[in-house]
Amino acid sequence: ITLDLNNCSITRGNENETSWLIGVAQGAALTIQDTGTAQTGKIQSDSFEVTDENGKEVTYAGFGVLTNGTLNIQSGTVSGYYGVYASGNAAAVTLSDGKVTGTQIGMVVNAGAQFTMNDGTVEAPWAVSIGNNSSDYGTTANISGGTITGTNTGIEINANKAPLGENETLESKAAYPVQVTVSGDAKISAQ
To answer: Which residues have CB under 8 Å from 168's CB, separation 6+?
Structure first.
């Protein structure tokens, strides 16, 4: 499926209690583009509050796009508390151009997901977070172009270790696999 923003914005309303504005299921593919001349098309999902059964306000993080499938961003902006959250060994995100922003993390790549960045921009306090909590799959990021800018970190790598078994020490456990390759004219900074 191709979603052409054509200078329009899609925003999650306050009454929507789903964390993600757009979800891509495993086995599905979505291409986001903005063919409008002004290039102002945007997907925006901010954090939201829900009143629980005790009358207390609970804040939830808003995801611009949550993907367990294939996501291609060719142009336009995807934004949220987490701009894009890719999780699972069937998740693959390619940023060819456009912009991903987050009020916390721009791009989360986790649990065997793959991230390829050829061009475009990722901006957030923690711009890109790459992690893995599974020994079954390796999480990978190949960044060959574009600009990654974080106010705290440009790229954060979290390779969790397997839980300890009986008579095991932390030093004997290998971290779950994470591979990050940066090449070409990619620019990564933390300010």
So the answer is: none
